[in-house]
Model the fold of this input.
Amino acid sequence: MPIVVNLDKMLVQRGMKSKELAEFIGITTANMSILKSGKARAIRFSTLEAICKALDCQPSDILEYVED
Amino acid sequence: MKDNINILTIITWAVLLVAVSVLLNDMREFDFNQFENFQNWAKTADRNESWFTSKNAIEWSYYAITAGIFFWRGYLIYGFSYFLSILKEVETGKYFSDKNIKYFRKIGNIFISYTIGILVLRFLLAAIGESTFNFINELKEEFTFLIPAGLAFYILAEIFEKGKQAKEDNELTI
Done:
């Protein structure tokens, strides 16, 4: 999939663990792992909004388009 | 929901048991001793006589085809038994599982092959002179309704395939 989720990078930059982020935005750790591994088919605006709020970043910091 | 499934399971079992008992009763009434007569005739038959036109051969063909019809009826009952498998999957909450899609396709296959099989056997019965065969009249018989039913099961399989995709998409939307 040409959309890459750069959540790991942002978590390192913010010094936050993925479990903490999952708790903060209200999703399960299993769903967080799906999101991080790139297996997710779609992301809800509400989830994106919560991630941006938690990590104090823009959607473009998390999502990136890379041509196959 | 669970109550409905239990009721459907009981109804399906009742239908299956009735179908099996009717089939077994028909088989009991069917005179299988004719096959022994045929075997005896085969031992003593005049080898110069043409096989196809001899009375015994035609009679034997009639019995063989009737036995073939029994086989197809048993196959149809086997198809009905897939309803129980589908209900079992639904009971465990796996509505759009691969198994259900496979079962729908199998039921569709069985219904359509049963109808075609019976039509062919009835044609053969007519060909050996034991009954009459008129294609349009045969299509008016009740059993040919299994063709649209079979197609309906193929359509259900396609719908469930799409449903499975939608379920996966929903599960993988975070």
About this structure: The domain at 3-65 of chain A is CATH 1.10.260.40 (434 Repressor (Amino-terminal Domain)). Chain A has a mean pLDDT of 90.
